[in-house]
Amino acid sequence: MTSKLDPEERKALLLALEDTGWRATDEGDAMIKRLLFRDFSDAWGFMAEVALLAEKMDHHPDWRNVYKTLEITLTTHDCSGLSVLDIELARAIDGLAEGRGEVDRDIGRPLMRLADSAANSEDGAEDDA
């Protein structure tokens, strides 16, 4: 079973992903990214590429597609939170997305919130985010 990222791993790994447009979901230990494509065909083609990649990694995103908009949510259900699998898949998705589609950053909350809430949970503090 895959384990959740610890607070130090989160701080080290999440900052670079926030720079590429990944955000914390409003609820739960997950991250989300919204991409806007030229049209439905471009969005669908990108999803097909991600699907093949996810199959190879045996780690699958939750996603939602409406016309040219694609929302991708990553979390590891086995450990009920973010794991190294999510980081690896996010990086791979970012590689595929480079030069394609526009990142919509008006979604979720800052990704570093997940690092801060994990550190607070480990210290026994309540997460009020």
TrEMBL record:
CDD domains: PCD_DCoH_subfamily_b (cd00914). It catalyses: (4aS,6R)-4a-hydroxy-L-erythro-5,6,7,8-tetrahydrobiopterin = (6R)-L-erythro-6,7-dihydrobiopterin + H2O. The keyword Zinc does not apply. Pfam families: Pterin_4a. Gene3D superfamilies: Transcriptional coactivator/pterin dehydratase. It is an enzyme of class 4 (lyase). It comes from the Bacteria. Keywords: Lyase. One of its GO terms (molecular function) is 4-alpha-hydroxytetrahydrobiopterin dehydratase activity. Its EC number is 4.2.1.96. InterPro entries: PCD_sf (IPR036428), Pterin_deHydtase (IPR001533). GO terms for biological process: tetrahydrobiopterin biosynthetic process. Belongs to the pterin-4-alpha-carbinolamine dehydratase family. PANTHER family: PTERIN-4-ALPHA-CARBINOLAMINE DEHYDRATASE. HAMAP family: Pterin_4_alpha. This is Putative pterin-4-alpha-carbinolamine dehydratase. The lineage of its organism: Bacteria, Pseudomonadati, Pseudomonadota, Alphaproteobacteria, Rhodobacterales.
